[in-house]
Write a structure and sequence with these properties.
This protein is about 10% helix and about 40% strand. It is mostly beta strands and about 1500 residues long.
Length: about 1500
């Protein structure tokens, strides 16, 4: 796993174990051992310790400290060992000679060694070591001291700066408040920035990773990730082999779980780190520790970081039950990294925190919205982000009915829409992207119109900001900027790569360096030995295929070379078997002068490679041609041809000696060349064991090139050498778990019966003297331990013939009970109520032991009536003052580290029984007897019921008559009663423990006539020519007495006379009767009477008529079954009656119709009773669903065979082309703006059509509501606007065809009056009226004008022009000496506007009007903005006392006051008393609790502004 910068001590940064020199010295000096205490290293000086002696060890080791500068630091340790070890202290880097600062102490009483460091400073921050040494060994542990420096120290800062310049940084400093101002005046800022960059390079060194090696961070992250994130994490770290990764991940998880099992019980509900609020990130999980004292550590990128339980700290831990919540506050970019949580030295959880480099270009701005309107916040990011976190009132907002969150396609513009705003929605809203946040207010203004109070207004979207910025344009510019930056980075990378290739090419073309050795060749014969004569020191071991330093040489062997281990089989006669390999005559400029080699005859590099010399036959000798090639290492190199290539000599068996045939071939570089065969190929020599020596047999074979050739065997083949594999294990040892004191057996089986073996335990050889029985039965070897003890636990090994097998023997000591004691404990304990009893059970088992007692499943604890005693060998439970409710199971549960054991007993507490249970049932009530029955008591007190004691009282008398005890049957028949008298009974239960309370019955009357109710109508079981069998049921009301019998009567159809079936004095006892007094062919009905002691009941309803004839045969199939009609909800059927065949199928009396959907297998019957008609309509079907339908004929003989339709039926009417059914459809309508637009069109179509509405041939807006039904469609605009004007088209389309219809809708309003009117006289006797157009003229093409005139001689107005579509009119017949007035009206389809008056035309002598100029008075504005006269003050209240907060405010109009606690409104909280009297606002908390702790603020706002005051309430314990 990934190694963090920590030791097993889990302390802090800077901790480490012994240095390399110490480790080497200890390796030479003794044996390394592991301590039970994590982080302690033990070295044993001698191999075997004397009996009773031990090496030093730490019982308690010093822990890491992080303290403030100037405080006292104390390290404490406890050690053990025999002889007593000597303890010394040391530190990694500094000196401890200062006795005033470093003081070492030893407490003989506690055996505690202490190192005290007084007035710590940054110089004492170091890793401290504690040594415990005696003559048999030594133990070492480390602890780090981290110092938090307070304030600023210029000298220290300069030393730090010098360390940075020298590349030395003290990693042990925790410096939370270092000010960079010390650089000014002493160091140039540019130089300081250089030093910082240098420090960054020093601190963050990248580890060298081998090719193909997976980063350890990958495993840390993926082991705590969800499976859905595996693919993303693998892509991030470049892991491609998913299958291998999953296999290795499973192994690592198993190892992790085994490690975690040491310290934790459970860990679940892991939630990875995420940004929860403004500047806060947290992650959490549920954890249950085995030991609550186990330490929890937090790491970031492998470095331990301190944390606190205070939420104000940078890193904090909050524990809520089993839940652990780690939080990081004041987030910065450097807080990103891998966070890990460890318990002791075991990793529990890892989470990767990534902070995106994103910022806000445009932040969200304040929004003002009215009630029932929508409000929108918008922002623009600097980098594409798929999602940001929206928060309102410190709560995360999610997509839903209230909020709509949208993101633009380029993921730069993010919007939050708050629907249907109310006063509860106002407040501060935030947007968080990474660690960047922005906030703005949402102000919801109350509706000031009282007429609209309670009415829902039209919802409108209020855009955020109101600055008029084009967010789309800003996002596009940012996208172009990002694309430009990416292209610049790509160009820079390409330029750098080209420069590197150019420098490499120049280095290759540089003059070759002189060779420092003669490592041109290396020999590696059959023995596998190869030597390099150069300085590369390339020596390989005998018989090995790898060089000592594992490197590879440049020269490569030919294909015919063989490895050194081939000498075991045969010796090759080919001259190429000598393993000669020649190097390229070139120098690699990247080589360092040293070379490696291996046993295959490859040479090592001794210097830079010289470019290869290739001879080309087409080039003249002495001339050369330079070309590029790729060498074995994948580098581009250059070589020059020096002359013609030598032709290969190939020997052809079919060619003549000395003659050759020239052929072309392709060399390694891909170039075509020629070669000439010089003679016949030598035939292969194959040795055949069956052939005679000196003779041979010729056979054909195919050579490497695919050519057929011949070869002759020259002698017998050598036999293969078979190597005996030796003894093998057929079955190895298996892990064994045994109880202490019980036998254990280990057994294995070998492949050889005659092989002896040796047994070991923990590497120590076992003998028969050790109490072990070792036996061998052929190949089976067995080790038996008769009575296992704890020291027998360990790893057992069996070795035989160099092979071994191992297994673990775990000897457990779980809790156990003695069988006799357990049998005695299991017996029930019986005790009387109020007495005490004791349960005791001895046990054995390893300590510590957890003992728990349970009663009826609930754990018992010590209290007034329960006492639990525990010891090492037994436990006792004492129960005093036992009650009846304590009766139940008693269980003891023992648990230790090896297992759990339970034992169960039972406690029975005896008490008096409870009273009998009612109600009392009257079985019989006659003139001479009352027979009653009751229920047994609910609790018999632990003893069976012996008797019931009864008393009787006659109603009206004061005395009770004792009836005595009756046996324990809850039933009594009182025969000593008088007719018509009422009686009351008292009943008590009698057991061995006493008599119960009484139960008193209601008044019971003797001899009251109570007739039974009528029975149900008789049912016909079967009918024949001479007999009809009937059955019936008991009446629901028996008349408080038992039924004595039944009387049955019959009546023939058509007759009014009922005749008895049985004699009236001989009632029928059973509830069935076979009526034989019938005539074949007649039809009868029957009724029955019930009889009790009071008499006959009313007769039952008559049964159905039944023929007295033999049973009929079932009918056949119905004929000509077909579908008559279909609709969306019903299918109509028709059929013909089935034919009759004598003796086979009789006439049908009715029909059942069954239906099922195509996807179902169960049939559903549509009619409960048979129908007699041959038509039926199946209703309540699903539209467009497929159904199977069948009809079943029925008669008295039963149901016939079902007749199915040939095919399934669709629940839909016959296909009909869409058409509109309204005769008078309006194609034009005018609507006043603000009113609703409703267009309802009826149509018919089958199947259901698809209805589409268009406006001006484009889809409708969302604000238009469309309602479709089976035969109509409606368009509705609830509140129309002028923009809704247009042509609305409905398109009705189905499989048969389509139809459309258009309606022109004109939304208008009363026109606004025209503008100012001017008068001109262009021709004498005429006046030209000119006016400004109405504002509605551009929006309404039907708007026109009307002009009216009035002169001074007439008092009325007359219309002189109408339907004018211009803005000018000339009036004629203007008489001089008169005054004329003109009015201009605007008209449209809705009506006429108010007039626009013209100035007076002409003159008329008038008297001057006396005008009084009154002075203008300025009204005084008394309105003031809200403000605080006396703000809130801080409060500290004791727990349980009242707290009173108050402040004084002003403002006109009266501001609205809202109280908040932690940004949550308190105005509706009934736990707080809030008042506002004459500007004094107060809040009263009657009883302060810790939940009231927090920040309180009061907000006052009106139309003139808003003000706020806050305070903090601290609750004192």
């Amino acid at each position: 796993m990934w190694k963090k910068s920590k030791v097993t001590d889990q302390t802090a940064t800077g901790q480490g174990g012994p240095s390399e020199a110490e480790q080497e010295e200890e390796k030479k000096a003794g044996i390394k051992k592991r301590s039970k205490v994590p982080g302690v290293m033990i070295t044993q000086f001698i191999e075997v310790l004397p009996e009773g002696k031990s090496t030093p060890d730490f019982l308690r080791k010093p822990i890491a400290l992080t303290i403030q500068e100037g405080k006292l630091a104390i390290f404490k340790a406890n050690v053990c060992g025999d002889p007593k070890p000597e303890v010394t202290w040391g530190r990694a880097k500094g000196d401890m000679s200062d006795t005033e600062t470093f003081q070492k102490r030893y407490d003989e009483a506690t055996g505690e060694y202490t190192l005290e460091i007084h007035r710590v400073s940054g110089e004492e921050a170091d890793t401290y070591k504690c040594y415990a040494i005696n003559e048999y060994g030594k133990a070492i542990c480390t602890a780090a001291l981290n110092v938090i420096e307070v304030g600023f120290k210029k000298k220290k800062a300069m030393e730090q700066l010098e360390d940075i310049g020298r590349g030395r940084v003290n990693q042990n400093f925790v410096r939370p408040c270092v000010r960079p101002s010390f650089v000014l005046g002493s160091v140039d800022p540019a130089e300081f920035r250089k030093l910082l960059r240098k420090r960054k390079g020093v601190d963050k060194e990248e580890a060298v990773k081998e090719p193909g090696e997976i980063d350890e961070r990958f495993w840390e992250i993926i082991m705590s990730a969800d499976r859905k994130d595996y693919e993303r994490i693998c892509a991030e770290f470049g892991v491609k082999d998913f299958r291998v990764m999953l296999k290795k991940l499973s192994e690592k998880k198993k190892e992790r779980q085994e490690e975690q099992a040491q310290y934790i019980e459970t860990i679940n509900n892991l939630k990875h780190i995420d940004i929860k609020g403004v500047g806060i990130a947290s992650f959490e999980f549920d954890l249950e520790l085995k030991d609550l004292s186990s330490r929890i550590f937090l790491y970031k990128d492998g470095v331990m970081i301190p944390y606190s339980d205070e939420e104000e700290m940078k890193h904090s831990l909050k524990t809520v039950g089993k839940k652990l919540i780690f939080s990081v506050r004041d987030l910065k970019a450097e807080d990103a990294g891998l966070y890990q949580v460890d318990v002791e030295e075991v990793n529990l959880f890892s989470t990767d925190f990534k902070i995106p480099t994103v910022d806000f270009i445009v932040k969200i701005q304040e929004v003002k919205a009215k009630e029932r309107e929508d409000a929108m916040f918008e922002c623009v990011l600097s980098q594409p982000c798929p999602r940001i976190k929206w928060m309102g009132k410190n709560a995360t907002l999610e997509e839903g009915e209230k909020y709509t969150i949208t993101v633009s396609e380029d993921k730069l513009i993010h919007r939050l829409l708050i629907k249907d705003c109310s006063q509860l929605d106002k407040g501060i809203y935030s947007a968080a992207a990474g660690i960047k946040t922005c906030s703005a207010w949402l102000i919801v203004e109350a509706d000031s119109d009282p007429a609209s109070h309670g009415k829902k207004k039209t919802r409108k979207t209020t855009q955020a900001g109101g600055t008029g910025l084009d967010l789309g344009k800003l996002a596009q510019e940012q996208q172009e900027k990002l694309a430009k930056e990416r292209q610049e980075q790509i160009d820079a990378a390409n330029k750098a790569r080209a420069e590197e290739e150019r420098l490499a090419r120049e280095a290759l073309l540089a003059p070759p360096l002189p060779d420092t050795g003669d490592g041109d060749s290396g020999e590696g014969g059959d023995s596998g030995e190869g030597k390099d004569t150069g300085d590369g020191k390339n020596k390989s071991e005998s018989g090995s295929n790898k060089s000592k330093d594992g490197g590879k040489s440049v020269g490569e062997m030919k294909d015919s070379e063989k490895e050194g281990d081939d000498k075991k089989n045969k010796k090759s006669t080919d001259d190429s078997d000598k393993g000669k390999g020649s190097s390229n005559n070139g120098i690699d400029p990247n080589a360092n002068g040293e070379g490696d080699g291996d046993s295959k005859g490859r040479k090592g590099r001794t210097g830079p490679l010289i470019p290869d010399t290739v001879i080309d036959p087409n080039v003249k000798s002495g001339t050369g041609q330079t070309e590029e090639y790729i060498d074995a290492a994948g580098m581009h190199s250059v070589r020059t041809r020096q002359g013609p290539l030598l032709k290969d000599t190939v020997i052809d068996p079919n060619g003549q000696s000395g003659t050759g045939e020239t052929k072309e071939y392709t060399d390694a570089s891909g170039k075509r060349s020629e070669c000439t065969r010089q003679g016949p190929l030598l035939k292969d020599t194959v040795i055949d064991p069956n052939a005679q020596s000196g003779t041979g047999e010729t056979e054909q074979y195919t050579d490497v090139s695919g050519k057929r050739s011949e070869r002759t065997r020259q002698g017998p083949l050598l036999k293969d050498t078979v190597i005996d594999p030796g003894v093998q294990f057929v079955s190895g040892l298996s892990n064994v778990h045994a109880l202490i004191g019980q036998p254990a057996e280990l057994m294995c089986k070998l492949s050889n019966d005659n092989c002896e073996g040796t047994w070991y335990r923990d590497s120590k050889k076992l003998t028969a003297d050790d109490g072990h029985i070792m036996s061998r039965d052929g190949a089976n070897h067995k080790l038996v331990i008769n009575r296992c003890q704890e020291e027998d636990s360990g790893k057992y090994r069996f070795e035989a013939d160099g092979r071994k097998t191992e297994a673990m023997l775990n000897v457990k000591d779980p809790p156990r009970f003695d069988p006799d004691d357990l049998s005695a404990f299991s017996q029930p304990v019986i005790v009387k109520v109020g007495n005490s009893t004791t349960f005791k059970l001895p046990f054995v088992g390893r300590e510590p032991m957890k003992i728990q007692w349970y009663r009826k499943g609930e754990e018992l604890l010590d209290d007034n009536t329960t006492k639990i005693e525990k010891s090492f060998t037994q436990s006792r439970l004492l129960l005093s003052k036992c009650q009846r409710k304590d009766t139940g199971e008693i269980k003891i549960k023992l648990k230790n580290e090896h297992g759990t054991m339970e034992a169960i007993s039972r406690l029975i507490v005896l008490d008096k029984p409870t009273a009998p249970q009612g109600p009392v049932e009257v079985l019989e009530s006659t003139a001479s007897c009352i027979h009653i029955k009751w229920r047994a008591p609910k609790d018999d007190g632990g003893c069976p019921v012996i008797n019931y004691n009864l008393e009787r009282q006659q109603v009206g008398r004061n005395t009770w008559k004792k009836l005595g005890d009756i046996p324990g049957v809850p039933e009594y028949k009182d025969n000593d009663v008088e007719h018509g008298r009422k009686y009351c009974y008292r009943i008590r239960v009698v057991t061995e423990e006493g008599v119960s309370e009484m139960m008193e019955t209601d008044d019971l009357t003797a001899g009251t006539l109570a007739f039974p109710s009528s029975p149900a109508p008789p049912k016909v079981a079967s009918a024949f020519n001479n007999c009809i069998n009937l059955t019936w049921s008991t009446p629901t009301d028996t008349g408080e007495s038992r039924i004595l019998g039944y009387n049955l009567e019959k009546r023939k159809k058509g007759s009014n006379l009922w005749s008895p079936v049985n004699p009236t004095d001989e009632p029928i006892q059973e509830k069935k009767r076979a009526v034989t007094d019938v005539v074949a062919g007649n039809e009868y009905e029957f009724r029955v009477y019930a009889i009790n002691v009071s008499g006959l009941s009313e007769p039952s309803s008559p049964s159905e008529f039944i023929f007295a004839k033999d049973p009929k045969n079932p009918p056949g199939k119905v004929e000509d079954l077909k579908v008559a009609d279909t609709s969306y909800t019903a299918i109509s059927l028709s059929w013909n009656k089935p034919t009759e065949e004598v003796g086979v199928q009789d006439e049908a009396k009715g029909y059942f119709i069954e239906v099922r959907q195509a996807e179902c297998i169960d049939w559903t019957r549509c009619n409960v009773t048979p129908i007699i008609l041959t038509t039926f309509t199946v209703k309540s079907l699903k539209a467009m669903a497929m159904y199977w339908i069948r009809v079943i004929a029925i008669n008295d003989g039963g149901e016939g065979v079902a007749q199915d339709l040939d095919n399934y039926i669709l629940a839909m009417p016959p296909p009909v082309r869409p058409c509109f059914t309204d005769n008078k459809m309006k194609s034009f309508m005018v609507v006043r703006a603000g009113n609703s637009v409703r267009i309802l069109l009826n149509f018919e179509a089958s199947p259901w059509p698809e209805v589409t509405w268009l406006k001006d041939d484009v889809p409708l807006l969302k604000r238009v509501n469309i309602s479709n039904s089976e035969s109509s469609s409606q368009l509705l605009i609830t509140s129309s606007e002028r923009s809704d004007s247009g042509i609305y088209t409905i398109v009705v389309k189905n499989l048969v065809g389509q139809e459309s219809f258009s309606v022109e809708v004109r939304v208008t309003d009363d026109p606004k009056p025209p503008g100012p009117v001017e008068l001109e006289e262009n021709v004498p006797g005429t006046v030209t009226v000119i006016w400004e157009p109405s504002p509605d003229e551009k929006r309404d093409d039907h708007l026109h004008y009307s002009v009216s005139k009035r002169d001074s001689t007439k008092g009325s107005w007359s219309t002189v022009a109408d339907r004018l579509f211009n803005n000018k009119f000339t009036a004629c017949n203007i008489m001089p000496g008169r005054e004329y007035h003109f009015r201009v009206y605007a008209k449209n389809d809705m009506g006429m506007s108010a007039p626009s008056e013209s100035p007076t035309w002409g003159s008329e002598r008038r008297k001057d009007t006396f005008v009084v100029n009154m002075p203008a008075y300025k009204t005084c504005d008394l309105r003031t903005a809200p403000a605080f006269l006396v703000p809130l003050r801080q409060h500290t209240a004791p727990k349980g006392y009242e707290c009173y907060m108050s402040c004084a405010i002003k403002g006109n109009p009266k501001p609205r006051v809202t109280w908040y606690r932690n940004n949550i409104s308190l105005n509706t909280n009934t736990n707080y008393l809030i008042t506002n009297i004459c500007g004094v606002c107060s809040l009263l908390i009657l009883r302060v609790t810790p939940k009231d702790w927090g920040e309180y603020n009061i907000q006052i706002e009106s139309a003139l502004g808003r003000a706020e005051s806050s305070t903090k309430l601290t609750v004192r314990e």
